[in-house]
């Protein structure tokens, strides 16, 4: 049974400006393993897409559970690639849910959608 659905969109230009300014957004949004992966990226566009995608996905999750960011922290949510490179989301305290996630990018935006399903 579907328990929640959330979607978020963010402008890549907004993330790019934050990275160029001081990159505190990355420190605020990414967990340690996500930050390690982020720092390993050598292409500035890919770094922007990665951070924007994680930001949007974490916002989408908070919308799917109905709490918004604040009651749940960005760092409570971790998104790492699986063996095929697809994003997999893990959130402590939500092990009773299957979390389905999709992240996409265009030239100007990153979009993420999260669907939550009750486990049997």
TrEMBL record:
<keyword id="KW-0275">Fatty acid biosynthesis</keyword>
<keyword id="KW-0276">Fatty acid metabolism</keyword>
<keyword id="KW-0443">Lipid metabolism</keyword>
<dbReference type="GO" id="GO:0000287">
    <property type="term" value="F:magnesium ion binding"/>
</dbReference>
<dbReference type="InterPro" id="IPR037143">
    <property type="entry name" value="4-PPantetheinyl_Trfase_dom_sf"/>
</dbReference>
<dbReference type="InterPro" id="IPR002582">
    <property type="entry name" value="ACPS"/>
</dbReference>
<dbReference type="InterPro" id="IPR008278">
    <property type="entry name" value="4-PPantetheinyl_Trfase_dom"/>
</dbReference>
<feature type="binding site">
    <location>
        <position position="8"/>
    </location>
    <ligand>
        <name>Mg(2+)</name>
    </ligand>
</feature>
<dbReference type="GO" id="GO:0006633">
    <property type="term" value="P:fatty acid biosynthetic process"/>
</dbReference>
<protein>
    <recommendedName>
        <fullName>Holo-[acyl-carrier-protein] synthase</fullName>
        <ecNumber>2.7.8.7</ecNumber>
    </recommendedName>
</protein>
<comment type="similarity">
    <text>Belongs to the P-Pant transferase superfamily. AcpS family.</text>
</comment>
<keyword id="KW-0479">Metal-binding</keyword>
<dbReference type="GO" id="GO:0008897">
    <property type="term" value="F:holo-[acyl-carrier-protein] synthase activity"/>
</dbReference>
<dbReference type="GO" id="GO:0005737">
    <property type="term" value="C:cytoplasm"/>
</dbReference>
<dbReference type="Pfam" id="PF01648">
    <property type="entry name" value="ACPS"/>
</dbReference>
<keyword id="KW-0808">Transferase</keyword>
<keyword id="KW-0963">Cytoplasm</keyword>
<comment type="function">
    <text>Transfers the 4'-phosphopantetheine moiety from coenzyme A to a Ser of acyl-carrier-protein.</text>
</comment>
<feature type="domain" description="4'-phosphopantetheinyl transferase">
    <location>
        <begin position="4"/>
        <end position="113"/>
    </location>
</feature>
<feature type="binding site">
    <location>
        <position position="59"/>
    </location>
    <ligand>
        <name>Mg(2+)</name>
    </ligand>
</feature>
<keyword id="KW-0444">Lipid biosynthesis</keyword>
<dbReference type="InterPro" id="IPR004568">
    <property type="entry name" value="Ppantetheine-prot_Trfase_dom"/>
</dbReference>
<keyword id="KW-0460">Magnesium</keyword>
């Amino acid at each position: 049974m579907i328990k929640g659905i959330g979607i978020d969109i963010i402008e890549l230009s907004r993330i790019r400006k934050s990275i160029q300014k001081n990159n505190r957004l990355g420190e605020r949004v990414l967990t340690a393993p996500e930050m390690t992966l982020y720092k390993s990226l050598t292409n500035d566009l890919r770094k922007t897409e990665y951070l924007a995608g994680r930001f949007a996905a974490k916002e989408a999750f908070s919308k799917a559970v109905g709490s918004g960011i604040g009651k749940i922290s960005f760092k409570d949510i971790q998104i790492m690639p699986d063996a095929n490179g697809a994003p997999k989301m893990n959130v402590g305290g939500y092990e009773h849910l299957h979390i389905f996630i999709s992240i996409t990018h265009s030239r100007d935006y990153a979009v993420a959608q999260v669907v939550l399903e009750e486990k049997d």
